[in-house]
Amino acid sequence: MAAQAIADGVERGWKIAGVLVAEDDAVLIHNRIPIDVPVVDEVDLEGLRRGALVAVEVVAEGRAYRAMADPIALSAALQLGHDRLRDVAEFTRELADAPAIAVTARTEPPEPPAVEDDYVDCRVGGEIVRYAPAAAHGVLRLEPPGSAVAVRLSAIPAAADGIATDDAFFTDLAAIDNGAWLRRGVADARGTVVALLAADALTDAAATLSELTGRPATTLATEPAAAARGAHTTPGLPPGSVVCDIGGGTVDLIGQGRTVTAAGAGETITTAVARVLGIPRALAERIKRTPALRVEGPHVAHEEDGRRVFLDSPAPAEAIGRLCTRGSAGLVPFSHRLAAEEWRSLRLAIKQETVAANIARCLATFDEPPTALVLAGGGALDDELLRTVGESLRSARVVVGRADIDGVHGPRFAVASGLVHLYAEQRVGTTARA
User: Fold this and answer.
1) DSSP letters of 115-139?
2) For the whole prediction, is pTM greater than 0.85?
3) Mean pLDDT in the chain?
4) Where is the Diol dehydratase reactivase ATPase-like domain (predicted)?
5) pLDDT-wise least confident of 114-128, 344-358, 399-413
6) Rg (Cα) of the chain, in Å, rounded?
7) Strand order in the sheet with 192-198
């Protein structure tokens, strides 16, 4: 019916430059009309006024040229003033990989934003300054850990009414939205990942443990101090090295006579991966650590390094045409949009903007860069995290390595080993004094 109406218009002498369709019928209509014009389907036609200028373009298969993705060309086509060019340029980023484009200028003002009652209170230059959460990403990366003293975020139940904090770290996912390598629409780079370290009063657990067990208990050291002692059993560790203990919620940097604890560690990576891919956290926890492959057929897959490999056994139907991770029970699909190489770049970017950037923020508080930074904890098992932290500190000429606790345990068990060593040293000291 639509194709016939267009054909009738052509017979009447109408000048038709393009066709906009609300439903998914572009190919069908294009094949049935007597003129060769761009046909764009699945267009939101609600509110489109009669006579409005609309920029329309369909990209031919195998071509990368998009005239309307050029902000200057789009502004000219829609007769927009130069004062709107920057806004148009930001908008056209979303068109960079679009196979079809239909754009018109907004004819009505946007809905006013909701009242912004969330905030982040930061200590800047000795004063407490209140920022909107949208501005916290940049501020907290420039200020040292401990600058965020209070946060109210309605989206987080624990902070909905305001919470005192010892630290906070915000990661605006737009920071990983790099159009140079990430195609538009393959990942959801909206939103902010928030890590909070609540300002809870410290209590000595030894007294509570003694009361519960009826046996004597003592606190040998803080967790960061124990981790540092354990990490210093690493063979070949250079003198003056700083230890970085990466946990699930915090990172601790210990060295040069100081300890820096900051919010934001392994869980921020998991949360960011789950958000940008729209997958459950349990699956995000699995895929954040290891390379993936895109299954091209029952027997062939495409690896992240570009190699094509034969699968050991036929891939299940749900894995074909999808990006998968290797699980204990076989291939587990998690995305049908991303290419394997694209996911690798995105994964590294997430680690760079979350944990690696946080560690660099912490290290900036030290008087001088250490010779080496040794990573301990479960996060240090991630080779890519070792790499991204190293890249973040490359300009500071800091060597980044991995702890090997007691020369046998790898980077884990730093706290446990440290407690054993501290207890033994305390016992030896007590015996010597006796």
Assistant:
1) P---EEEEEETTEEEEE-HHHHHHH
2) no
3) 89
4) 120-423
5) 114-128
6) 28
7) 127-131, 119-124, 148-152, 163-172, 192-198
